[in-house]
Amino acid sequence: SSVLTQPPSVSVAPGQTARITCGGDNIGAKGVVWFHWYRQKPGQAPALVVSDDNDRASGIPERFSGSSSGKTATLTISRVEAGDEADYYCQVWDSSSNHYVFGTGTKVIVL
Amino acid sequence: EVQLVQSGGEVKKPGESLKISCKASGYTFATYWIGWVRETPGKGLEWMGIIYPGDSETKYNPSFQGQVTISADRSINTAYLQWNSLKASDTAIYYCARRALRPEAWFDPWGQGTQVTVSS
């Protein structure tokens, strides 16, 4: 089955840049893979941050940006603030299995 | 405003049945797929399955096929997730979420989540 791997945690000082990677070798064998990103704050439901690799969702500041290359994507958070502390998940549709796959999740810790 | 509102938390015993709901508002319910996602501390988010309320076409993650049933009632704009016989391992938070129009798309918005606790 498909697996999207993320680092378990990323620690960053306020004002610095956090980068979260997401990748899977056996996803999307039939074509282009689109990566989407969600933020989940403690006690809340996940919420969309970036869709289609790099489109920010409504209300998401420009400090959040996404990029991808083949079967790997990166969510970058610039000028990190204390309020960015949360769990972040990537998600794709795996065309080879017709299923949706979430990444393993990354906890962003603001020092 | 597009909104998904889920039913409240449940505490059940192993072997009991359960049906939780997800009521949609602010858009044409029949024309967007609704997915269900499980959250557990050990495994994070897992996609369980998805339903198209327009014709009730349903697709399941093989890991959940046969374990749960996803359904929808267009007359009341509500999607459901049900179990016939709960296990302790079903203890989790369950979210519904609307999928954007393309198959390869994202889920937005999400319901607030329903905590299901299964314990003897």
Descriptive account of the structure:
Chain A has strands at residues 9-12, 18-23, 36-40, 47-51, 55-56, 64-69, 72-77, 86-94, 99-102, 106-110. With 111 residues, chain A is mostly beta strands. In chain A, the strands form two sheets. In chain A, strands 1, 3, 4, 5, 8, 9 and 10 form a seven-stranded mixed beta sheet that branches. Chain B contains no helices and eleven strands. In chain B, the strands form two sheets. In chain B, strands 2, 4, 5, 6, 9, 10 and 11 form a seven-stranded mixed beta sheet that branches. In chain B, a hairpin with a 7-residue loop joins strand 9 (92-99) and strand 10 (107-110). The N and C termini of chain B lie far apart (40 Å). The model of chain B has no long low-confidence stretch (mean pLDDT 96). The interface between A and B is medium-sized, with 26 and 25 residues.
Compact summary:
The complex is a heterodimer of chains A (111) and B (120). Chain A has 111 residues and is an all-beta fold. Helix content of chain A is 0%, strand content 47%.
Q: Topology of this structure?
A:
The complex is a heterodimer of chains A (111) and B (120).
Chain A: E1 9-12, E2 18-23, E3 36-40, E4 47-51, E5 55-56, E6 64-69, E7 72-77, E8 86-94, E9 99-102, E10 106-110
Parallel strand pairs in A: 1-10
Antiparallel strand pairs in A: 2-7, 3-4, 3-8, 4-5, 6-7, 8-9, 8-10
Chain B: E1 3-6, E2 10-12, E3 18-25, E4 34-40, E5 44-52, E6 57-60, E7 69-73, E8 78-83, E9 92-99, E10 107-110, E11 114-118
Parallel strand pairs in B: 2-11
Antiparallel strand pairs in B: 1-3, 3-8, 4-5, 4-9, 5-6, 7-8, 9-10, 9-11
Count of DSSP strands of chain A: 10
Note the gap between the termini of chain A. Answer: 36 Å
The parts of chain A where pLDDT drops under 50 for at least 5 residues are none
**Secondary-structure element order of chain A, N to C:** EEEEEEEEEE
Structural class from helices and strands of chain A? mainly beta
In terms of structural class, how would the helical and strand content of chain B be classed? mainly beta
Sheet having the most strands of chain B: 7 strands, mixed
As residue ranges, the low-confidence spans of chain B are: none
Give the overall form of chain B. Answer: globular
What would you report as the Rg of chain A, rounded to the nearest angstrom? 13 Å
Q: Residue-averaged pLDDT of chain A, rounded? A: 93
Give the helix level of chain A as a range of percent.
under 10%
Helix share, percent of chain B: under 10%
Sheet-strand content of chain A, in percent, reads over 45%
Q: Give the assembly state of these chains.
A: heterodimer
Number of separate helices of chain B: 0
Order of helices and strands of chain B: EEEEEEEEEEE
- Mean of the pLDDT scores of chain B? 96
Strand content of chain B: over 45%
Largest sheet of chain A: 7 strands, mixed
Q: Rounded to an integer, what's the Rg of chain B over CA atoms?
A: 14 Å
